[in-house]
Amino acid sequence: MRALARWREDFPVCESAACRKRPSPWRVLAGEKPGVHLQGHYYCGPECFQKAAQEIFSQLLPAVTRRQSKRHRIPLGLVLFSMGHISQPDLQGALQAQKDSGAGRIGEHLRQTGVVSEQQIATALAMQWSCPVYPLDSHRRFLDCARLIPIPLLETARMVPVHYLPSSNFLYVAFAESIDYTTLYGVEQMLDCRTEPCVATESSLEQALEELRQQPRPAEVVFDSVTDACEMAATARNYALQLGVTNVRIVCCGEYIWTRLESPAQTNNLLFQIPLR
Ligand SMILES: [Zn+2]
User: Fold this and answer.
1) In this structure, which of 39, 92, 165, 258 has its CB flanked by the most CB atoms within 10 Å?
2) How confident is the model at residue 65 (pLDDT cuts 50, 70, 90)?
3) Residue 41 forms beta bridges with which residues?
4) pLDDT digits (tens, 9 = 90+) for 163-183
């Protein structure tokens, strides 16, 4: 049985229905590993890979453009009021300020007027989203997770991965505004882990993001004008060929289609930013 599994591993069948080729025994005996794995499926060469990638991009594109609105929650102002942190006039004043400025978050308006502290906002957010507060300013473990998620994804969702537990395969991710469950789902699919959201103060999250920007990271390339599945697949193919990639995974993550290319030497991330229709 073990010999059969080994044989299947060394001579996988191309998953493209029109191809079904196995790698040449001579190339395998010469120590080469031709072909590439895409979402765990084997493709024998650039043509079969590109076709399969195009199909995946076509399937993911509608999911990105149909970005889900945030789940309904009790408004943060009401949570702060019910916790006794603000009075009714404070709440009305902040709502009016938000209306007058036409932008901004209610917590930010309240904090600027000195009515509530950052810590109180974080506690209220944690109550709003039913998750714990993470003391990001006093814990440095987020630096161990620095390479897991590309910076543009962290900046867009305003989040930082703070702690990874290999024993249970849990990744704790801190947010400071609202919890972006669609992005978390993309992260779970890409990293094959389970995520657990938590809340951190705005300033500690910003500080952590700044430190992560200074860390050595895998290459991250953002494409903001490649929005067609065919062009995305051609781009992924070109990078895969150039970098000698062996494993590719493509997921929808917030407003991006995140493509991770792994070769024995390095990991590269391609981020296709998709405008909301
Ligand atoms: Zn093939």
Assistant:
1) 258
2) low
3) 38
4) 999 999 999 999 998 899 989
